[in-house]
């Protein structure tokens, strides 16, 4: 024991001595330059056309399989969405294994397996590698395609479209692609309710049989495997995959860039912020000499927090939570440069002007040498870290194969990044970032942003939410004489039982129930003057509690940000409408139809949370609620239809509340309503 103590103290002294010799005023020496060594895959090909690339890596006892169906881009026209439908059905069972048993086995093996129409990916421990390969092949060759599952996926896709109907992000993505490429181009067409309803189960199966085949398929295997074993197993499980008739499609050219820089405006009246996209088409391929310089140039403009756009629009001006750019590449010659940001309505015009200024800057001013050095080092760091993921290696192996790249493309990658010069950045920026042929796509609230956008002097053209040309929106609201926010709210109170009756209320308790994917969800509201506590529980287990008082708003006892809490305080109390009477910010913005009945649209704007309520013109009842939350550059819209009012002790409440959750229709039924009972001050502590 004594010897052990002496040894310990000796080690302690040595450690102290060594530490004392370190000069902490000097940064540590940089480590050696990373060497990128991506092993050349061993290859073989089956008679049916499946090409297999194998990279042995015995560092960890894991293996991954990446199946890629390398079809040319396919335009599906009036049946757009058929590929999404069939893709969502793949990987969920086979003709010999039910969906539940298939998924249970994958989980039991601790593996992962997922599919889309362009292929699939699977990974597992090495000891289960043959079985997971067998499951992958079975799911690809013998998928369980049944009409019942097709109808479920179709319903989910349609509900998702409804949920995205007023999403500025979804609209911007759809219209941006359609205008840039053209709606006949595979990259420009989009899915609608009509095109989905055009797709039958037979169409989906026929599409699978025509395009999901080994003709143009690649399987990349990476991990703790032996080439000879992989070759034997792949032949065993994929030999029966039948080669189909080659489909030779021609990829059309995208629409040309616009003749002059212009704003393409899409009006979304409920939008609390504007979605900006400044874009032009480019023809950039990985095999181009400009490729590496183009990557760094885009990173300097908008690749992250150090980019020109981010520093200007967020750090300097505070217009947005983030501003970025992307410079795409495509071997079919159809890609885009795209600078994006989500900004507050009141600074939409200023954000456009500043973003254009930064694009001009990188085209005309030499980039700072230190900034260029930092951009290259950051890119190299991210590149090296990405190599830790098996899917990255699989993608690199495929990139070389599919893009006709030299075998040393990735081993020389970092050096080519380091070789990018100040002159390269300016040259590439002028080649790929247009100065006079930019589309500035703005999706936003025209009533609040158009007047200032017009002052920029940039020509404005108008489009609807599906990229059709449109007239300039009109914002004058013609209301019947005497109708205003207060009169609409007064009629609402009369419709639910009368203001006199409402004034006698001290508390309200409402309990709603819904079934969501087999689970029972209960929403309970307790209200008193100036207070609201709402609890959501699933299968009897509390999931979320939101407490709203005049002092603060909290979720699960955690205070919400001050600006968000201030916007939500009006929700507290017996009725939100009591807090909104005589509001200086509330306004009627139109008369719209809600399920074929006209309703006054009343908006209550907020900094982060905005409310829009719809009141039936004839009955006065509130028939729809929309809550829009905009934070950190993200927007979330929650809509509820209020129906089947029921009377409790002289006061009417909606018997059902219908909304969408992750693309699925959710219907809450009123279980109970109590007036002046069941609620106490203790509920709000």
From TrEMBL:
Residues 1-20 form the signal peptide. Residues 199-378 form the Peptidase M16 C-terminal domain. InterPro entries: Metalloenz_LuxS/M16, MPP/UQCRC_Complex, Peptidase_M16_C. Keywords: Signal. This is Insulinase family protein.
């Amino acid at each position: 024991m004594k010897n052990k103590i002496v040894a310990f103290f000796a080690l302690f002294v040595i450690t102290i001595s060594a530490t004392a010799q370190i000069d902490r005023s000097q940064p540590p020496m940089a480590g050696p330059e990373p060497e990128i060594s991506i092993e050349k895959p061993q290859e073989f090909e089956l008679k049916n056309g499946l090409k297999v690339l194998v990279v042995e890596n015995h560092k960890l006892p894991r293996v991954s399989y990446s199946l890629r169906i390398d079809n040319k881009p396919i335009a599906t026209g009036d049946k757009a969405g058929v590929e999404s439908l069939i893709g969502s059905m793949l990987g969920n069972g086979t003709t010999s294994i039910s969906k539940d048993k298939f998924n249970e086995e994958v989980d039991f093996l601790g593996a992962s397996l997922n599919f889309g129409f362009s292929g699939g990916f699977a990974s597992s421990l090495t000891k289960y590698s043959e079985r997971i390969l067998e499951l992958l092949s079975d799911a690809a060759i013998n998928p369980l395609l049944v009409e019942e599952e097709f109808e479920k996926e179709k319903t989910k896709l349609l509900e998702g479209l409804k949920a995205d109907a007023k999403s500025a992000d979804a609209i911007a993505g759809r219209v941006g692609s359609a205008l840039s490429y053209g709606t006949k181009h595979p990259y420009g067409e989009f899915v609608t309710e009509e095109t989905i309803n055009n797709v039958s189960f037979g169409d989906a199966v026929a599409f699978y049989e025509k395009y999901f085949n080994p003709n143009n398929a690649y399987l990349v295997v990476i991990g703790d495997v032996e080439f000879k074993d992989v070759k034997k197993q792949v032949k065993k499980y994929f030999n029966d995959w039948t080669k189909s008739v080659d489909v030779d499609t021609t990829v059309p050219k995208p629409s040309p860039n616009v003749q002059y820089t212009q704003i393409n405006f899409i009006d979304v009246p409920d939008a609390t912020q504007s979605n900006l996209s400044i874009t032009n088409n480019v023809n950039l391929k990985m095999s181009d000499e400009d490729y590496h310089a183009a990557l760094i140039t885009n990173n300097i403009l908008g690749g992250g927090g150090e980019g020109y756009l981010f520093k200007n629009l967020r750090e300097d001006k505070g217009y947005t939570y983030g501003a970025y750019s992307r410079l795409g590449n495509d071997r079919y010659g159809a890609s885009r440069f795209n600078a994006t940001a989500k900004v507050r309505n009141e600074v939409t015009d200023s954000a456009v002007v500043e973003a254009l200024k930064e694009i001009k800057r990188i085209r005309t001013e030499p980039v700072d040498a230190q900034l260029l050095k930092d951009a290259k080092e950051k890119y190299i760091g991210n590149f090296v870290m990405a190599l830790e993921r098996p899917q990255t290696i699989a993608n690199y192996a495929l990139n070389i194969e599919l893009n006709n790249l030299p075998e040393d493309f990735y081993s020389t990658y970092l050096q080519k990044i380091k070789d990018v010069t100040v002159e390269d950045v300016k040259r590439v920026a002028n080649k790929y970032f247009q100065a006079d042929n930019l589309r500035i796509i703005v999706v936003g609230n025209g009533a609040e942003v158009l007047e200032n956008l017009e002052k920029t002097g940039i020509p404005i053209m108008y489009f609807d939410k599906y990229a059709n040309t449109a007239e300039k929106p009109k914002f004058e609201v013609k209301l019947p004489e005497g109708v205003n926010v207060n009169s609409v709210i007064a009629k609402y109170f009369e419709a639910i039982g009368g203001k006199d009756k409402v004034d006698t209320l001290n508390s309200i308790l409402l309990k709603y129930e819904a079934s969501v994917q087999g689970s029972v969800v209960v929403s309970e509201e307790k209200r008193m003057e100036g207070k609201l506590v709402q609890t959501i529980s699933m299968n009897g287990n509390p999931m979320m509690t939101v407490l709203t008082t005049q002092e603060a708003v909290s979720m699960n006892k955690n205070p919400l940000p001050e600006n968000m809490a201030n916007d939500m305080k009006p929700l507290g109390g017996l009725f939100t409408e009591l807090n909104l009477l005589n509001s200086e910010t509330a306004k009627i913005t139109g008369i719209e139809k809600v399920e074929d009945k006209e309703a006054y649209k009343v908006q209550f704007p907020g900094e982060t949370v905005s409310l829009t309520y719809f009141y039936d013109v004839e009955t006065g009842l509130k028939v729809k609620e929309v809550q829009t939350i905009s934070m950190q550059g993200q927007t979330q819209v929650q809509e509820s239809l209020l129906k089947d009012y029921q009377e409790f002790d002289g006061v009417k409440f909606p018997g059902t509340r219908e909304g969408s959750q992750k693309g699925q229709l959710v219907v809450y039924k009123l279980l109970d309503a109590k007036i002046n009972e069941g609620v106490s001050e203790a509920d709000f502590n």
